[in-house]
Specification:
mainly alpha
Length: about 100
Protein backbone atom coordinates (compact mmCIF):
# COMPACT_ATOMS: atom_id res chain seq x y z
CA UNK A 1 0.00 0.00 0.00
CA UNK A 2 1.46 3.35 -0.99
CA UNK A 3 1.91 6.19 1.44
CA UNK A 4 0.02 8.42 -1.02
CA UNK A 5 -3.13 6.35 -0.49
CA UNK A 6 -2.60 6.32 3.25
CA UNK A 7 -2.35 10.09 3.41
CA UNK A 8 -5.32 10.50 1.05
CA UNK A 9 -7.47 8.42 3.40
CA UNK A 10 -6.20 10.14 6.52
CA UNK A 11 -6.70 13.61 5.06
CA UNK A 12 -10.38 12.80 4.38
CA UNK A 13 -10.80 11.36 7.88
CA UNK A 14 -9.21 14.50 9.31
CA UNK A 15 -11.99 16.58 7.70
CA UNK A 16 -14.85 14.75 9.46
CA UNK A 17 -16.17 17.26 12.00
CA UNK A 18 -16.82 16.43 15.65
CA UNK A 19 -20.30 15.00 16.15
CA UNK A 20 -20.40 13.48 12.66
CA UNK A 21 -19.35 10.11 11.23
CA UNK A 22 -18.47 8.79 7.79
CA UNK A 23 -18.67 5.23 6.56
CA UNK A 24 -15.75 3.25 5.17
CA UNK A 25 -17.46 3.27 1.78
CA UNK A 26 -18.02 7.01 1.91
CA UNK A 27 -14.31 7.62 2.57
CA UNK A 28 -13.43 5.21 -0.26
CA UNK A 29 -15.70 7.13 -2.67
CA UNK A 30 -14.19 10.46 -1.62
CA UNK A 31 -10.71 9.27 -2.59
CA UNK A 32 -11.94 7.82 -5.88
CA UNK A 33 -11.72 4.16 -4.81
CA UNK A 34 -15.38 3.32 -4.28
CA UNK A 35 -14.82 -0.46 -4.30
CA UNK A 36 -12.09 -0.35 -1.66
CA UNK A 37 -13.89 0.19 1.65
CA UNK A 38 -11.85 -2.60 3.25
CA UNK A 39 -8.72 -0.70 2.31
CA UNK A 40 -10.01 2.20 4.41
CA UNK A 41 -10.28 -0.05 7.45
CA UNK A 42 -6.74 -1.31 6.90
CA UNK A 43 -5.38 2.23 6.66
CA UNK A 44 -7.23 3.30 9.79
CA UNK A 45 -5.83 0.34 11.72
CA UNK A 46 -2.33 1.69 10.99
CA UNK A 47 -3.09 5.38 11.46
CA UNK A 48 -1.18 5.73 14.74
CA UNK A 49 2.06 5.40 12.73
CA UNK A 50 1.21 8.53 10.72
CA UNK A 51 -0.04 10.98 13.35
CA UNK A 52 -3.23 11.66 15.24
CA UNK A 53 -6.47 11.40 13.29
CA UNK A 54 -10.14 11.12 14.36
CA UNK A 55 -10.48 7.52 13.15
CA UNK A 56 -13.23 6.95 15.73
CA UNK A 57 -15.51 8.90 13.38
CA UNK A 58 -15.55 6.12 10.76
CA UNK A 59 -18.14 3.34 11.01
CA UNK A 60 -19.53 0.69 8.69
CA UNK A 61 -22.47 1.27 6.32
CA UNK A 62 -25.00 0.28 9.01
CA UNK A 63 -23.46 2.55 11.65
CA UNK A 64 -21.79 -0.35 13.44
CA UNK A 65 -18.66 0.48 15.41
CA UNK A 66 -15.31 -1.25 14.98
CA UNK A 67 -15.34 -4.58 16.80
CA UNK A 68 -13.13 -4.75 19.87
CA UNK A 69 -12.71 -0.99 20.23
CA UNK A 70 -14.91 -0.04 23.18
CA UNK A 71 -13.36 3.44 23.39
CA UNK A 72 -14.89 4.36 20.00
CA UNK A 73 -18.41 4.60 21.45
CA UNK A 74 -17.15 6.71 24.34
CA UNK A 75 -15.33 9.14 22.04
CA UNK A 76 -18.35 9.48 19.75
CA UNK A 77 -20.76 9.96 22.65
CA UNK A 78 -18.57 12.75 24.03
CA UNK A 79 -18.95 14.50 20.67
CA UNK A 80 -22.74 14.21 20.77
CA UNK A 81 -23.17 11.36 18.29
CA UNK A 82 -26.44 9.53 18.91
CA UNK A 83 -26.90 5.77 18.91
CA UNK A 84 -29.78 3.43 18.14
CA UNK A 85 -30.92 0.84 20.68
CA UNK A 86 -28.68 -1.75 19.00
CA UNK A 87 -25.57 0.37 19.65
CA UNK A 88 -25.13 1.47 16.04
CA UNK A 89 -24.67 5.14 15.18
CA UNK A 90 -27.85 6.91 14.05
CA UNK A 91 -26.62 7.68 10.52
CA UNK A 92 -29.74 9.67 9.55
CA UNK A 93 -28.69 12.51 11.82
CA UNK A 94 -24.96 11.96 12.34
CA UNK A 95 -23.57 11.07 8.90
CA UNK A 96 -21.17 13.67 7.55
CA UNK A 97 -22.26 15.31 4.31
CA UNK A 98 -19.07 16.80 2.78
Amino acid sequence: MSEDIIYEVLSVVDEIPPGKVATYGQVARLIGREKNSRLIGKVLSMSQFYGTYPCHRVVDHTGRLAPGWAEQAILLAKEGVTFKDNGHVELKCCQWKP
